[in-house]
Amino acid sequence: MKTSTASQKGGTAPQRGRPREFDVSAVSEAAARTFWERGYHATSLDDLCDATGLLRGSLYGAFGDKHGMLLAALDHYSEGALVRLSERLNSGRPACEAVREALLHHTRVAATLEHLRGCLITNTALEMVPRDEAVATRIEAVMRRVTTLFAAAVIRGQAEGAFDPALDERATADFLLCMTQGLRVVGKVIPDEARLVTAVDVAMRALG
Question: Which residues cross the membrane (predicted)?
Fold first, then answer.
């Protein structure tokens, strides 16, 4: 892993020989929440140290620099989000109900979270893309996986007779991806669950 720019300029390389004495997953979770609350550019290393309980040397040794922490945080957040989406879409219920539940999740999040409004992936994309290629590549990969999950649900819904058989599953999956991201963005500004649920109902009618 690369050393941070700050450490290169300062001439003092962080110690890397010591074994890690912390849970990388828990640290990534804490970093994700900090970036989620504040955004990348407004988050300082001191903020990350406070959130994780680690010293700068430990953060540098594990992640390289602040940007490395962001990438680790995105990976951690994304994997959790993808697992939860897969569980909702493959819960054993009819595809129409499963897709609606996956969309309704975003309406509930928008209506209940206060300072953590929006989606870390969406917020980071708006802040960092297209200037940051590493972030863009990660987010694009996550979105591909989301559409793959939705496409499978669309095919299943067509087989069950709930969705229009003329729908293209990939285009419909892209539509559902746009719905999930749109719900998070609109919910960040207008956390009105009833209005967002109405939008979900309109989207579901478009499917079948």
Answer: none
